[in-house]
Design goal:
single chain; 496 residues; mainly alpha; 3-stranded mixed sheet; 3 strands; 3% strand; globular
Length: 496
């Protein structure tokens, strides 16, 4: 089974109401973010009301997607054509973005109320709206230029959010991140220039029909791949990730680790499936880097002294699971069964990780806010007063470790099945080692948390709802494994 993102024949022409739903999904986060900058919400209920129309628009698009394999929109302005497409994969990522974005937005008023007020705190809202709109645009884009616009909007807004705290460490990490993301954008644009100069097309559908393997395609894939890998913090280009999260506000870390790095990975897989169909070495190289990422990220997390460093380093390892699957998705000589299993496991792992990692960052942020401590030793004995935050961290860890019946377990089961069918034994070993390392650094943190001999601390009470929002995300990742049949059925609409 060879698949292309959204290039299926059964196309549904959207009704006028679908156009309004599409506009709401793309534009309302920007509008509500701008309004929140002018009138900053002090409670969660205005944020919840603002999320309702976005959820309704997403639900309407989901209903339309269930009626057809593919939705398409196209407009022309002064000879310039703009097109979007929505299939099963896109709607899942769109709904994931809406729910994670809503969770981060609902968490923010409580954070700003109990932490020290910052001069630029109100700008977090429009930047958060920009990131959510840019992510939605990336899932819907059908050409290289729109993908670039989405990635740039998302990257620049993410950098700006990281700089809002005004701390020296945040400024240093944010400027490094800005420099590296601009380097990645330049490499991506050079690859686009090669494609346009040789084939004269920007749209993915036209390129799928014209593109042939050769030196130009390989060079364009290398440039785009390097730029997107840098933006996605794929090993060994991940050095900027942990410093960025060390000083970032909690909702910023939740959005960034849960979604922002995934968008670049989504684009990378989408473009390489066009530029490098049935290529042996390129996906194998990504897989080998993924195996190293699993081990390296797990070891760094296991040795981490800071809680945020532990959570951020685990992202490097978890992204390694997705990198290992590349040969099964775009490599040659893969059976239809193995490719189908890898396709389902890849996206289920991505969604489960996004929910669990956002919940874990929120739980970590709550522990740090309540105690004023950032190190594992400083958080010793927190089980006495912060049991709910630790429960959230534990439930999210179940998904990361891949324990049943979480989404992590179902995804890894699918991936292991695909690897066994295709006899990818090194990949099987990497996944098993990664699971053991994940358990090692998670239980290391809990060993400190339940230390009865630790001195008693003074705790700052959290704002109402902060733990419950994180718990909802952790439970969603857990329940996703039990209800995996629904997203897996939709994922079949994202392949052909």
């Amino acid at each position: 089974m060879m698949w292309r993102f959204g290039l299926v024949e059964n196309t549904f022409a959207p009704m006028l109401t679908s156009h309004w739903a599409l506009a709401a999904v793309l534009c309302l986060p920007l509008l509500f973010g701008a309004l929140a900058a002018i009138f900053p919400p002090k409670r969660m209920w205005p944020v919840a009301l603002a999320c309702v129309p976005i959820f309704v628009a997403g639900l309407y698009l989901l209903i339309d997607t269930l009626q057809a394999d593919l939705l398409r929109w196209q407009w022309e302005f002064s000879g310039v054509s703009i097109a979007f497409r929505l299939n099963g994969l896109s709607i899942l990522l769109l709904l994931l973005t809406q729910w994670l974005g809503a969770a981060a937005a609902l968490y923010t008023p409580g954070l700003l109320r109990i932490s020290e007020p910052e001069r630029f705190a109100r700008w977090l809202w429009p930047l958060m709206g920009t990131v959510i709109s840019a992510l939605s645009l990336a899932w819907l884009a059908t050409d290289l230029l729109t993908l670039y616009i989405a990635l740039e909007m998302m990257g620049l807004a993410a950098v700006a959010m990281l700089l809002l705290s005004g701390k020296a460490a945040a400024l240093q990490a944010g400027m490094r991140y800005l420099l590296l993301t601009l380097v990645g954008s330049l490499a991506y644009l050079l690859g686009v220039a090669l494609v346009v100069g040789y084939w004269g097309r920007l749209d993915l559908t036209g390129l799928a029909q014209l593109m042939e393997p050769g030196p130009v395609a390989w060079m364009a894939a290398a440039l785009m791949g390097a730029g997107l890998a840098l933006k996605a913090a794929l090993f060994p280009l991940h050095g900027w990730l942990s410093p960025v999260h060390a000083s970032a506000w909690t909702p910023v870390s939740a959005l960034h680790a849960g979604l922002v790095v995934k968008a670049s990975l989504f684009v990378l897989l989408q473009l390489w499936s066009l530029l490098l169909p049935d290529t042996f070495w390129a996906p194998r190289l990504i897989a080998w880097m993924g195996m190293l990422a699993i081990v390296w990220g797990g070891l760094i997390a296991w040795r981490a002294e800071s809680l945020k460093t532990l959570v951020a380093s685990s992202t490097v390892a978890q992204l390694g699971y997705l990198m290992v699957v590349f040969p099964l998705l775009i490599g040659p000589d893969i059976s239809p069964l193995a490719r189908a299993l890898a396709w389902e496991g890849f996206w289920l792992q991505l969604m489960g990780h996004a929910l669990a990692k956002a919940a874990m960052f929120m739980a970590a942020g709550n522990l740090i806010l309540a105690t004023g401590e950032t190190t594992l030793k400083g958080l010793a004995g927190t089980s006495r007063r912060l049991s709910l935050s630790l429960l959230v961290f534990g439930v999210a860890s179940v998904t990361l470790m891949g324990l049943p019946p979480s989404a992590g377990f179902t995804a890894k089961w699918l991936l292991l099945h695909a690897m066994v069918v295709s006899q990818q034994w090194l990949a099987v070993a990497a996944l098993l080692v990664g699971t053991l390392l994940t358990a090692a650094y998670i239980f290391r943190f809990f060993r400190y948390s339940f230390m009865e001999t630790a001195p008693r601390q003074r705790y700052q009470p959290l704002a109402p709802g902060m733990d419950m929002i994180a718990l909802c995300l952790a439970l969603a990742a857990f329940v996703l494994g039990l209800l995996a049949h629904f997203p897996l059925e939709l994922l079949q609409g994202g392949s052909a």
